[in-house]
Amino acid sequence: MIAIDGALLADLVCPVTRTPLTLSAAGDSLVSAAAGLAFPICDGVPVLLVEAAKPLASPGDQIIIP
Amino acid sequence: MSAPEIFNRKLRRLRRDRAAPGFPAHAFVVDHIIESLLDRLDLVSRRFDRALDLGCHDGRLTKALRGRGIEVVSADAGYRFAKMAGGIQCDEDRLPFADASFDLVISAGVFDQVNDLPGALTLIGRILKPDGLLLAGFTGAGSLPMTRSAVMAADIVHGGAVAPRIHPQIDVRAAGDLLSRAGFVLTVADGETLSVRYSNPFRILSDLRGMAATNLIDAQPARHFNRQDLATIAESLASQAERDGAVTERFELVFMTGWSPGPNQPQPARRGSGGKSLADALKPAPFSDRVDITRPDKP
User: Fold this and answer.
1) How far is CA B115 from CA A13, B168, B220, in A?
2) Of A18, A43, A48, the CB nearest to B88
3) Parallel, antiparallel, or unpaired for β A22-23 and A29-32?
4) Would you call A48 and B90 a contact, using CB atoms and an 8 Å cutoff?
5) Cβ pair B253, B194 in contact under 8 A
6) Confidence (pTM)
7) Which of residues 3-62 of A touch B (CB under 8 A)?
8) Residue of A5, A23, A48 to mutate when probing chain B, most B C-beta within 10 A
9) The pairing of beta strand B50-54 with beta strand B71-76
10) A55 to chain B, closest Cα gap in Å
11) Is the Cβ pair A44, B94 closer than 8 Å?
């Protein structure tokens, strides 16, 4: 359902901390555990803007463990 | 965020989103920059595998690069442009890409709207692999001289003071300095003038809007232009017009070329490795076309 490919995801990092991002369980956001932020994916477009990110309820709660 | 910001990021996204649907009709400056960038790219003999199109607009440069067999990731600060190009939305000075992700970063027509350009260049240096290429072109210093003087005239006549309406612009020399400061090597910064003839001078303003190039300065002028201002602008533009009423406006384009440092790049020769004496090389040749003139001691 998400049009974001693995190669691109591997190259994306959090714009705040420059640490890797993980796809959320619902697949609708990219989670930066280090910054405690979830960046939305709107209609297939990852929106990697600090002002568009939502803080995580508790760190790590949406992360898929690979 | 301690450093003051020049441009309003929110406004910039809004302007880009508004410009997106009608962009093709106003894309001629970006198209010209793209053409120049591709000319420069085609002169480089090495092959690039993975590129970032930074400030991708509607994806026209992305498409051209893919046509050359390069894998491209597109990015834009505006959502609609990012969506049109199938890319991601991010700011140039807060790049969300891992170190050494690309061997080419190419950018057409956005570096003049970046808040922290030195920071953006440093980040680009990081996301480039060693011996990766940065190619960028944007509108630089000296652009839009007629529009500038016309809006200044309106502000002085009706507002009593000049308001910040035209962006601070980067000149060629500063572009070169910025590249070296960000750690790029084999850098080149050069300029090109694009003259655009307008039979209806007011089309300049609609073109600027259509290419998302209108004022983004964070301290927005308190005074909005009214009918009187527009009359003064029209008068000022008319006074600068040619005999047939057409106005030729200039876009001074600045181009940046720089490589991230790599092990196999040309290096200066080691000190003392020369085999010939410089003193000999500089001696005047016996049969040169040099003309010696001896002036008399006294007039």
Assistant:
1) 21, 11, 15
2) A48
3) antiparallel
4) yes
5) yes
6) 0.85
7) 3, 8, 10-16, 18, 20-21, 42-51
8) A48
9) parallel
10) 17
11) no
Which residues between 223 and 262 in chain B have a beta carbon less than 8 angstroms from any beta carbon of chain A?
none
Of A11, A43, A50, the CB nearest to B98: A11
* Tokens, residue B189: 């910064």
Cα B53 to its chain centre, rounded Å, is: 14
Question: One-letter amino acid identity for B287?
Answer: F
Strand B88-89, strand B71-76: pairing: parallel
Determine the Cα–Cα distance for residues A48 and A29; give it in Å rounded to an integer: 10
DSSP string for residues in B75-108? EESSHHHHHHHT-EE--TTS--B-TT-EEEEEEE
Over its length of 299 residues, how does chain B's per-residue pLDDT go in tens digits?
456 788 999 999 999 999 999 999 999 999 999 999 999 999 999 999 999 999 999 999 999 999 999 999 999 999 999 999 999 999 999 999 999 999 999 999 999 999 999 999 999 999 999 999 999 999 999 999 988 888 888 888 887 777 778 788 899 999 999 999 999 999 999 999 999 998 888 888 889 989 988 888 877 666 778 888 888 888 888 888 888 888 889 999 999 999 999 988 887 778 888 888 888 888 876 665 556 666 777 76
Distance CA B215, CA B98 (A): 32
Q: Are the CB atoms for B163 and B221 separated by under 8 Å?
A: yes
Q: Please state the length of chain A.
A: 66
- How far is residue B88's CA from residue A5's CA, in Å, rounded to a whole number? 12
